[in-house]
Amino acid sequence: MSTNQILAEHVENYITHDDALHGRLEDPYADSPFKIYREMSSKIKGKYFEAFVEEYCENLGWKVERAKNTTEYDRVVNNYKVEVKGSTVWAGKKPHFRWQQIRPEHCYDIMVFVAVYPDRMEFYSCTKEEIVDYVTKKTWSNQHGGKTKNSGTFFIDGFPEDFPFFKTLFTHLEGFKGEE
Predict the structure, then answer these.
(1) Under 8 Å CB-to-CB from 79, ≥6 apart: which residues?
(2) Is 162 strand, coil or helix?
(3) Are 172 and 110 within 8 A, CB to CB?
(4) For range 51-56, the mean pLDDT
(5) Average pLDDT over residues 135-158
(6) Are 88 and 100 in contact (CB under 8 A)?
(7) What are phi and psi of 75, to 5 degrees?
(8) Is 33 left (phi over 0), alpha (psi -120 to 50) or beta?
């Protein structure tokens, strides 16, 4: 055997080859239980993210109801109208999350962001005012129409730590608002 080669019969002994076979170098979700959500269509993925938020909040002992108007918000948590946005990590030269379809004109109180990493799911929240203020000041965050046409729909790219207004769910949802 030459010292400057790896024979086909020995390549199975290399971790790098095993990573390539299982797509681990390209897809950090290759061995993740969250891979199923990464592979879903946006619409189906959104339904599951909403359900995760509902179940997580119920497990905290919070009051959760289905939205009366699902075109405006997704759930009512402790009497707050909650819009849910979720994302898995977008791969590429600069990995990031992308939370999409942020609509300032919709009627919600709190926006919940679900960040699905290969090894965990994290939940963050902000007020409607905070997210609307952020997206409407960023010309690059207009989701449809680019920088020339305001479609009224926005997105944000980054990691949770990039957004100082991302807080825990407890910050915005723990207490009851109004009458029960």
Answers:
(1) 63, 176, 177, 178, 179, 180
(2) helix
(3) yes
(4) 96
(5) 71
(6) no
(7) -145, 165
(8) alpha
Mean pLDDT of the chain: 87
CATH level 3 topology of 41-173: Trna Endonuclease; Chain: A, domain 1 (3.40.1350)
Distance from C-alpha of 133 to C-alpha of 140, rounded to nearest angstrom? 14
Distance set, CA 89 to CA 9, 113, 137 (Å): 35, 13, 24
Q: Do 122 and 115 form a contact (C-beta atoms < 8 A)? A: yes
CA distance 88 to 121: 9
**Mean pLDDT throughout 30-44?**
91
Residue positions counted in the chain? 180
The whole-number pLDDT of residue 28 equals 82
Q: Would you kindly state where each structural domain of the chain is located, as residue ranges? A: 41-173
Residue 156: per-residue pLDDT: 93
